[in-house]
Specification:
Elements lengths: L13 H5 L7 H15 L8 H14 L2 H18 L13 H32 L3 H14 L4 H10 L7 H21 L6 H18 L4 H6 L6 H6 L4
Helix pairs in contact: 2-3, 5-6, 5-8, 5-9, 6-9, 7-8, 8-9
């Protein structure tokens, strides 16, 4: 994440960068970010690399509950000092540690989304199901990759992930935890079509992600939870 320069008072708040109010919920933040990212992504003719960097910074902070809470506190402090209702994001300069975790969070999200995109396409073709069905089921899975980053990074490091592998390993930790929770929630209805389709997704996303790390690290991370087999005795 790019830190604002000391004394740079020209920058809007992170909420203003995304065009949302400070009380916007997660879904509103995500819609706003995606809309603007689609417009300003450097790969598009209308792209703007500098603007895209600002959008990524705003999203990485506001979509993480812990970072957002810290940022909101900074805004409140600024508001109290200036006696105004509007604060400037230039006073918010996350520590090097927070910036490091924010960067890993973005890596985990990117890896997760790429693996999910590939999985929805492959499964739709293989099972003759509309891809949109898998895409809808994938949304909460991909959102999960951006949660509890600091704790999950620590687990990835304990498993032996190197700095080069840390973003990918963190994504795998996130996916395994989601799969385990999903199994516990779904055991009584394990043959319902949405549950079967979600289990297929989880297993395929894991395989896609695991291609990027060593087999030894994958084993240390717990290996593919084989969600579908656990619930139904079937394989993908």
């Amino acid at each position: 994440m790019t830190e604002p320069l000391p004394g740079d008072n020209s920058r809007s708040s992170l909420y203003e960068t995304l065009g949302v109010s400070p009380d916007a919920d997660y879904d509103s933040l995500r819609r706003a970010y995606r809309k603007l990212a689609f417009l300003f992504h450097p790969d598009r003719n209308s792209g703007n690399r500098s603007k895209m960097q600002e959008l990524n910074e705003a999203w990485s902070v506001l979509s993480d509950p812990a970072l957002r809470e810290s940022y909101d506190q900074k805004l409140k402090q600024k508001s109290a000092k200036s006696k105004t209702s509007t604060a400037d994001s230039s006073d918010y300069r996350p520590s090097r540690k927070m910036s490091w975790f924010a960067g890993l969070r973005l890596q985990a999200l990117r890896h997760g989304r790429e693996a999910s995109t590939s999985a929805t396409l492959a499964l739709a073709i293989r099972h003759g199901i509309q891809r949109s069905i898998y895409q809808e089921l994938a949304k909460p899975i991909t959102d999960n990759f951006g949660l509890e980053t600091e704790r999950r990074v620590k687990l990835a490091r304990q498993a032996g992930a190197t700095p080069l592998d840390l973003g990918l390993a963190t994504a795998l930790v996130s996916l395994r935890e989601y799969s385990q929770q999903f199994i516990r929630r779904s055991q009584e209805n394990s043959f319902d079509p949405p549950i079967v389709n979600t289990a297929q997704l989880l297993d395929r996303i894991w395989d896609n992600l695991a291609h990027g790390i060593s087999r030894e690290l994958e084993i240390e991370l717990g290996g593919n939870p084989r969600t579908l087999r656990t619930l139904t005795g079937r394989r993908v």
